[in-house]
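[job 4471] stage=fold_predict status=RUNNING
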Amino acid sequence: MSEKKKKITIKISKLQLFQIISVALAVILVVVFASGMGSGAVVWNVNSVGQKTAKIINDKFLPPGVVATYVNGTVQSGIYKILIDVQGQGKEQKSYVYVSGDSSILFPTAIELSKLNMKAQPPANQPPAQQQANVTKSDKPNVELFVMSYCPFGTQIEKGIIPVVNALGDKIDFSVKFCDYSMHGEKELKENLLQVCIQQDYKDKYLDYLECFLNASDSASCVEKMGFDNATLTNCVDNLDKEYNVTAMFNDKSTWLSGRYPLFNVFKSENDLYGVQGSPTLVINGVKVQSGRDSASLMATICSAFNNAPEECNANMSSTAPSAGFGYTNSGSGSGSGSCS
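[job 4471] inference complete, writing structure tokens
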């Protein structure tokens, strides 16, 4: 048990502190303090409540070496507004949390209704204009899509992007890469290895293979249909597996992320460089971007990365999001906001 805790701490130490706090506080639904104010008139005691709040966060949610300290607080709209300073691992983050007036419930965040932006939002199947404007431009955009091969949201965006990549052809550099951990068992690790090798040895046929795989997740029949040489692929997979210890780490659960997820380190350097947090993650010209998962949105997002967009960017693309998971029969939501993370 002690070894598992050590490994979890090591992984957490690599995260930004604001991510640690966001995850920690997100799971706080109701926290009962040691003593409530009871019925009757409320007696406001900001400092006492603030110190109790910091203690709860320290005791229940923060890893070793990270400490929350009460800074100050006020009463706003009948609730305590508490400023907490979290320090550790060479970083610092200050965040507000909120406590009910009777000192019984802790809220990780609050929304001031008067400050909500009521402006109309762009259609879900189109990336926001500002988002596209922030895409780094180049003459030939480099498009990297990070997924887990059996993640239903990864397969969703893959189905959306294939027509775009086929239309743009050699006007872009496109590749599918994989997250540095797996959430869908040994079959996913094997499929990841296979797809890496297909992109290496049969790059021109990779999208055809991927389209076949996305239909029914039947790798063997898709390999046969594409006419790939099994010996070539097997040799590549075996070498890649040994180089990155994929199967060895799968068999050694002490190496798993948080004791739950086996590692896949073939693209670990890229995962670390871009801060990939789950499947799917779209990276264009070295910058993470957001996009709808329908083909029209993906075309608009990728084409916004050209210095001078080619005429292929005017190709007619579907604005209907593909379904999550395998198969092409159903459509999904316009934005496809789910992820495996």
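[job 4471] summary: The longest helix spans residues 152-168.
[job 4471] exit 0
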